Amino acid sequence: MNTSVQTGQLQKRLGLPFAIAVCVGLVVGTGIMRAPGEIANMVPDPTVVMLLWLAGGLYVILMANVAAEISSAIPRSGGHYIPVHEGLGDSMGLLVGWTMWVVGVAASAFLSLAAAEFLGTLVPWVADHGPTVAVLFLLGVTALNWAGVEEGRWAQIGSTGLKIALLLAVVGVALAMPAGKAAGEIETAPLVAEPLTILTVLAGLQFVVAVYDGWYASIYFAGEDKDPGRNIPRSLFQSAIIVILIYLAVNWALIRALDFAVLRASTLPMATVIEAATGRWGSIIVALVAVLMALGTLNAVVMSNPRALYGMAEDGLFLKSALKVNRGGTPTFALALGTVLAIPLIYSGGYVFVFRLAGAMVLFGSCLFVLSYFALRKHRPDLTRPYRARGHPVLPALVLLINLALLISFVIAEPISGAIMAGMIAICIPVGFHLDREKRRLTATPV
Fold first, then answer.
1. What is the pLDDT of residues 314-325, one digit of tens each?
2. Could you list the residue range(s) of the whole structural domain that residue 253 is in?
3. What is the pTM of this model?
4. Element (H, E) at 7
5. Which residues of 44-68 are buried (b: 16+ CB within 10 A; e: fewer)?
6. CA-based, 20 to 30 A from 425: which of 44, 111, 168, 190?
7. Which CATH number do you get for residue 263?
């Protein structure tokens, strides 16, 4: 008998350190290097900027409050798909599962290219062959995770720890400088005081929420955690606190070290600070930090994304091949499929379109995720819940309204994405109903 392949048997090898590392590692990536300047430009008031970063963190905690209950109560690997399928049925489960998986494939392409582009600033040959180097990065991370969960786990813990250390070092350097010192002699256009409106604040919050995206990573591994009832809630809340503190510290340090007008105009404000502190070594340090950020996040995506297909395959909503697990505990077919589909995206640039669509789809998925919480509370009241959401039903209802507000404002700003999202919903609903009827027919057919 071939023991290298097991069908439908993920292994309980993971614990709290990995669960925290994968959440923090998926959130903290290259986004935090660019986002401070973008947010400052959208909402040109330093106090409001800091409040938005804090509000984004509070949003994550409200979502974690919901996720901690439903993902620890149904500890299966598969992420958002699992509670949505259990609470809202095949159609919505299929929609959320496919959406989050496609987003993961696009993220794999984007992060691989980002790592190659940053390395290309140091090595001219890499700059001339960016897509090819990006594919090599992606294949390398895929091979690491193909070897097994243990290898991916240690890579994630190590890369996340190093990312945190580097960011804290940047914060320390920025705070050690005299206020405004990093701005140097950089000339900028005069700061125009633009009126703050609800729409501009919502747009800024959308951007901040996107930079916090990935906070939920540990729920994708719930079926592989040694003690999911304790570790999933703890990982969600502890990682949220870590990321909030890091993001607030980074933005506070950048606002202090740079003139606010310089921050608004900067695409890579961290680079400005590092170069001011280290001189000619600054660009090298920035590039290496950025490559590490991208690769650490890429490992988290490559490791978690196959679990979405695995969860759907368990329920008959995807090919049974996705249930093939090797001796190292990796769903090999699902892992390979994501990598194979990411490669043409790398060469085509199609991930940009997918990411624009993903903004609406992830918010829509978050709405269904919270709705599944209410559905499970109503239809499965006797379900064992190691963690019960605080403030029920007010706090879960509040975060549902926040998601709806963000989704509506996003669709208003991106009507094409909204139309495509509606089309995907229209396709998934009849497919889900058909699959549900087939399951009932097979169950009713006597053997």
1. 998 888 899 999
2. 8-441
3. 0.88
4. strand 5-7
5. bebebbbebbebbbebbbbbbbbbb
6. 111
7. 1.20.1740.10
